[in-house]
Amino acid sequence: MSGVLVLGFGNPLVGDDGAGPAVVRELADHCPPAGIRIEDGGTDVLTLPSWWQGETELWIIDAVRAGAQPGTIHRLDHDTILSLPQTTASLHHLSIPECLRWIVHAFPEMRAVRFRLWGIEPAVISASSGLSEPVAEAVGQVASELWSALSASSADREGSSTADDNDSSDRFS
Is a pLDDT exceeding 90 seen at residue 43? Predict the structure, then answer.
């Protein structure tokens, strides 16, 4: 199977940690292009293999703390993600890159999968529902960016040189 699996991770009951599921909700409001699956992955990246159905690309959206301003969007390609070090010493707090390294090790059939990450810098990570203003704005921007990229990816796989009916720059404005 070819295609793209888009997974949003996070907990909407913990403030801005719900950024990944919020992007997924915005994307899921529209009919995805052929070959695209959009899913809420819950809170544990290690469940990723249970979501995978042979897609060649796996795009992850999550809240990511990197010390930037809240709402900053971090875009990481496959090689960059997998080269990031594990920064904690606990197996109970694995980073996304460390989870992906373990997954690729444990599931050799996933070695050919290409990962991409859209991380949104949180402002509030505490028991609360709803997103802070800068994260809510970033969610809209990431949803729009992903929709454009997914539409282009779908058109490329179909051998089309023109955008299909699903491509619309104003869907998320």
Answer: yes
**Residue that has been written with the tokens 């997924």 in this structure:** 24
Distances from the Cα of 151 to the Cαs of 48, 53, 108, in angstroms?
23, 20, 29
Q: Enumerate the domain spans of the chain.
A: 4-157
Q: Using DSSP bridges, classify how beta strands 114-120 and 4-9 pair: parallel, antiparallel or unpaired.
A: unpaired
What pTM, to 2 d.p., does this model score?
Answer: 0.86
Q: What is the mean pLDDT of residues 54-79?
A: 97
Report yes or no: 138 and 145 within 8 Å, Cβ to Cβ: no
- Residue 67 burial class via C-beta count within 10 angstroms: exposed 0-12, middle 13-18, buried 19 and up: exposed
What is the CATH architecture assignment of 4-157? 3-Layer(aba) Sandwich (3.40)
**Which residues are registered as beta bridge partners of 60?**
7, 117
Measured in degrees and rounded to the nearest 5, phi and psi for residue 116 equal -135, 150
Phi and psi at residue 74, in whole multiples of 5°? -100, 125
